[in-house]
Design goal:
Helices cover 39% and strands 12% of the residues. It is α+β, with helices and mostly antiparallel strands. Strand 1, helix 2 and strand 2 form a beta-alpha-beta unit.
């Protein structure tokens, strides 16, 4: 997976906008979405490592969409944690420059 990700990232232009649709995750991990997709990505580890590689160049921006919070659900913070991690990568990349 790492080689595939590096190949994709190396072919991107300098200015890239990354849009993450939370529906891609399996409902067992991310149930609070507009259109749950059974059999979606089984975990976030591969998704987040791919995302980290995509943030390597300096000019990257992102959004996270399709969150549909379910009142009282313990996993409602999954989307927020993903955003927090993405923002951390952006700040770290900017600080390295």
């Amino acid at each position: 997976m790492a080689d595939v990700t590096k190949g994709i990232v190396s072919s991107l232009s300098e200015n890239v906008y990354i849009s993450i649709d939370l529906d891609v995750f399996d409902p067992g991990i991310m149930p609070a979405v507009v259109t749950p997709e059974p059999g979606g990505s089984p975990g976030s580890r591969g998704s987040t490592s791919c995302g980290r590689d995509a943030f390597e160049p300096e000019h990257r921006r992102f959004d996270v969409m399709e969150l549909a919070p379910i009142a009282g659900m313990a996993r409602r913070t999954t989307g927020a944690r993903l955003c927090y991690r993405l923002m951390g990568w952006l700040v770290a990349r900017q600080a390295e420059k």
